[in-house]
Amino acid sequence: MRFFHLADLHIGKKVNGYSMVDDQRVILKQVTNLIAQEKPDALILAGDIYDRRNPPIEAVSLFDDFVSEVVLDLKVPILAIGGNHDGGERLGFANAIQAKVGLHLVGSFTWPIPKVRFIDEFGPVDVYLMAYADLAVLHSVVPETEGLNYVEAMDWILTHTDVDEGVRNVLVAHGVVTGDDALVTSDSERVLSIGGTEYWKSASLSKFDYVALGHLHQHQRAGDERIRYAGSLMQYSFSEEKHQKVMLDVVLSEKKDFQFTPIPLEAPHKLVTIKGYLEDLLKVPATVKPYQEDYVRVVLEDSGSLIEPMQRLKNCYPNIMLLERQASLPVDVGVVAPIARKTAMSPVALFETFFEQVTENSADEEMCAIMKGIFEEVQKEEL
After folding, report:
1. Interacting residues of 330 by C-beta distance below 8 A, sequence separation 6+
2. Which of these three, 215, 247, 264, is where a domain ends?
3. pTM of the entire predicted model
């Protein structure tokens, strides 16, 4: 069996006030083109399909178009689970009907863990779809785990999952799996619990021939070559700017025999940090010219006061997201406001981002219009 492994699409995400939907559309088209060309047996999506529980309309529309092309046009089944960013009940709506056309989507944690069976020339392959759940959900859905901590509860669940070890088995899951290796994390991953206690151990996954994981945004293994994070669809924070985003091409032949190949995914804009003195950067030196159309974070090395540095830089770098001063240098606030982590966002855009982060809903047009009026009145009073 051959399948593609993706995770952490975060459709609808905004990065520093910039919507990523158009970039996501471009990358998802790369995925569908690869599926059409390579014709895998299935596509796995290991959680965090959306960036928030109540995704904006354009995000839902994009995912609907993507799923329709893969499942209906290309006739390739999708095996998907909900992650910690997803609204599980909403995501898994009408899953029984969807499964009949090839979309196997488990939005919320279910016990026993549901599975989908495939048959190839080597025999059966059982794919288990374990959606994300916090400890309270595990205790509620699986009463036998009540009183156990997260590590113990997950170990109990995986131990008691009815797996035919005579056939090949794949687990699709979302969360933090620890092994002997240190895991690579990034700023854009939501912390799963205070103290980082929501994890389970790679040793509990011995029944499975391949484990397709989501949550961590860097492609990496988790203690074993067969236990792998695909990483996120694209760069979602400047801590990820060195990450090469990939889709994993996985082939299971005979029992305990698998191969994987990372397929690079290229976004139309990358996240890039450039450093230097303001006047030098305004000349757009050759070292930064290739990044002019990317999403840019500028770190200024100037030590004195600067007049409207953001506006001046925006003329050269239209997609500038962040403007910072090098931490070791003093900032003169006499001419301009402190610009540490200043963004290129308008007050209304800042409000929209804040509202979404707090409520996990998008501010409607009427609310934005009210806030715009308030900001304009404040600006008049300041004048």
Report:
1. 303
2. 264
3. 0.83
